[in-house]
Design a protein that fits this description.
about 375 residues, 15 helices, globular
Length: about 375
């Protein structure tokens, strides 16, 4: 009996540092971890709103693109390492703190005062590597060792950028992006563990969390310089904002998850890794950028309900989201893409009507998204095998 008891308990003790591969559904630990990304997206959206020019947009999106690489990397990580061990959970909590600090420092990331952003990024890179080395799959441990130098190099580029002349600072930020996003090919992408159902569900839930930012934007837009009770224009603005957010949600979550899961499941190991890179790390980044622009557009449209809202945020954000989803569908063969592409082309000019009235721009985007969702849903019901 004693020997049996020892053999049963030893794996539990051993799992404190040797983590088992994730199986099945996303864990509460991962959902809790993803909440910090909402704050980061909120900060990026606010940076876009407060600096509406091209320079302000790039200063908001460069940190977003770089941080998404590592945040997506934690999706890959918890796909290979189940976050049940105490030490792993503590390290994930430290990583959450790092992401939160990066979110706080988004407005200062391009200045010498923003030193906390790159240092927090490098700390997150180190935590990510340490936890990955607890995976019980040797190929995953070898794969992360090949990629850590690239992750760290991007952090160093961002660290030195504010201390260089402005033009060279931009070069460092621009160079950090290909250093990260080409690293799987330079360091060879083979070896990472991909569990299809968990991977698809994790990214779907993460996008759902990001869509929450578009809902938050409605509340921010409802706050005006003078506080007052809800009147008819505000109620209409909130209704249209909810309709836009719901349209984005419907476009993504109308059966795609199950179809993507099935395609992912039957793919070869190498194709799974390529799909994980292109369809999830890549296409989901495009969709997230779209959500950020739409959220900024909703806030601005409610603030300028009767006229002169930003001309491009709503329409271009919707177009970017739809194109990202079209790429995702194309890669995973999870549905038609024509309606997404046509909708993207229509969204830009129709969303520009927000310049004449915020309510008009939101109404046009709701019509575009409703048309896509309705056509797609009916065709899917008529041809379920497509």
């Amino acid at each position: 009996m004693t020997e049996t008891g020892r053999s049963e308990t030893s794996p539990v003790r051993r799992r404190l540092w040797i983590s088992e591969r994730t199986q099945g559904r996303v864990t509460p630990t991962e959902l809790f971890f993803d909440l910090v990304f909402v704050f980061f997206v909120t900060q990026v959206t606010h940076a876009v709103e407060t600096h509406p020019g091209w320079e302000g947009l790039l200063k908001a999106l460069f940190p977003m693109v770089i941080v998404w690489w590592m945040f997506s990397g934690f999706g890959w990580l918890t796909n290979a390492v189940r976050p049940d061990a105490v030490q792993v959970r503590l390290l994930l909590t430290l990583a959450m703190t790092g992401f939160f600090i990066m979110g706080l420092d988004v407005p200062y990331a391009f200045t010498p005062e923003g030193w906390a952003f790159p240092l927090a990024y490098l700390a997150v890179v180190a935590i990510h590597a340490v936890v990955y080395l607890t995976a019980n799959a040797p190929s995953a441990r070898q794969a992360i060792l090949r990629n850590v130098p690239f992750n760290a190099a991007a952090g160093v580029l961002v660290l030195v950028a504010p201390h260089l002349p402005e033009a060279w600072g931009w070069v460092c930020w621009a160079a950090a992006v290909p250093v990260l996003y080409l690293s799987p090919f330079l360091g060879r992408i083979r070896g990472f563990v991909i569990e299809p159902h968990h991977f698809v569900e994790r990214h779907a839930l993460l996008l759902l969390v990001v869509l929450g930012e578009s809902v938050v934007a409605i509340g921010i837009g409802a706050e005006s310089a003078e506080s007052h009770a809800v009147d008819a224009p505000l109620a209409l603005g909130v209704t249209l904002g909810i309709a836009v957010a719901s349209g984005l949600w419907w476009v993504y979550f109308d059966g795609d998850e199950a179809r993507a899961d099935a395609e992912f499941e039957k793919a070869t190991e190498y194709r799974r890794q390529m799909l994980a890179y292109y369809a999830f790390t890549g296409a989901h980044l495009v969709m997230i950028i779209g959500v950020i622009l739409v959220a900024a557009g909703i806030t601005d449209a409610i603030h300028h309900f009767d006229g002169h809202a930003h001309r491009w945020w709503l329409g271009c954000g919707t177009a970017v989201f739809l194109l990202g989803h079209a790429i995702y569908r194309s890669l995973l063969r999870s549905g038609r893409i024509t309606d997404r592409v046509v909708g993207a082309m229509c969204a830009v000019p129709l969303g520009a009507t927000a310049y004449f009235a915020g309510w008009l721009g939101m109404t046009m985007i709701v019509i575009v998204l409703a048309a896509i969702a309705t056509v797609d849903h009916r065709l899917a019901a008529r041809h379920p095998g497509d």
